[in-house]
Amino acid sequence: MSNTSRVALVTGAGSGIGRACALALHAAGYHVVLAGRRLDALAQTIAQAGTGSAAQLLAVPTDVGDPASVKALFAKTEQAFGRLDLLFNNAGMGAPAVPMEELSYEQWKAVVDVNLTGPFLCTQAAIRLMKSQSPQGGRIINNGSISAYAPRPFSAPYTATKHAISGLTRSTALDCRRYNIACGQIDIGNAATDMTERMAAGVIQADGSTKVEPRMNVKHVADAVVHMASLPLDANVLFMTVMATNMPFVGRG
């Protein structure tokens, strides 16, 4: 099947990595469903795709942590395009960088809802659709994080949920073989987005110091996701790390 007839769904598509990947998939010929909390941000992503793109792009305001909202998202995807070939579970958030014992339950739960429950709900819905469509199958890509392996100070909710995403990736890859559904994960280090802007001023390190960290163009992440998506379903990138070469990851601490 050519990319011109493929359908991708990107969560967190209103900014940052999600926006860059949605635009790259669209440029590669995909119809793209853009999910995010704010319709105005999704509209800005569509505007950046250029004129004449409206028929290939669908914005659906979504709270990925809410089962009803996710159900509506996938129903609208099927109604608009008839199938789904790629889900990019990208939506994510962090909590304030404070000692673990000072985090509130509400702060913890908010991160878990978006970073873990959201991908689980979207994966469930994608599997159901991909199982039932003809031809059967598709691909799911999860946005993990190198923080799952080498956490930053004061990042317990983010680190815990991203570590859990690696387990979700492995379980999905195993359980979905029979349905011709591939699942992989991309772990990203310091892509230059609004979320990492603070790194230009310096972020806290494991030894308590504050240092400026190198960042990389977010385009490299988008290109990597398009590459993962372009593989035939009998091939899969299970885990990929894309990072700023000189960032403190190998040897962090």
Task: Give a summary of the structure in a few sentences.
This protein has 6 helices and 11 strands.
3D architecture notes:
By secondary structure, the protein is of the alpha/beta class. It has one domain (3-243): NAD(P)-binding Rossmann-like Domain (Rossmann fold). Helix content is 38%, strand content 19%. It is built from six helices and eleven strands. It has helices at 16-27, 39-48, 67-81, 105-132, 156-175, 219-230; strands at 7-11, 31-36, 57-61, 86-89, 138-143, 181-189, 191-192, 203-204, 210-211, 216-217, 239-243. The strands form three sheets. The protein has a seven-stranded parallel sheet with strand order 3-2-1-4-5-6-11, sandwiched between helices. Helix 3 (67-81) runs parallel beside helix 4. The termini are far apart. The mean pLDDT is 93.
Order of helices and strands: EHEHEHEHEHEEEEEHE
Proportion of β residues? 15-25%
Q: Mean pLDDT across all residues, rounded?
A: 93
**CATH superfamily heading:** NAD(P)-binding Rossmann-like Domain
Structural class based on helices, strands and sheet pairing: alpha/beta
How many discrete domains? Answer: 1
Distance between the termini: 46 Å
Secondary-structure arrangement, i.e. CATH architecture: 3-Layer(aba) Sandwich
Please state the CA-atom Rg, rounded to the nearest Å: 18 Å
Q: How would the global form be characterised?
A: globular
Q: What is the CATH topology assignment?
A: Rossmann fold
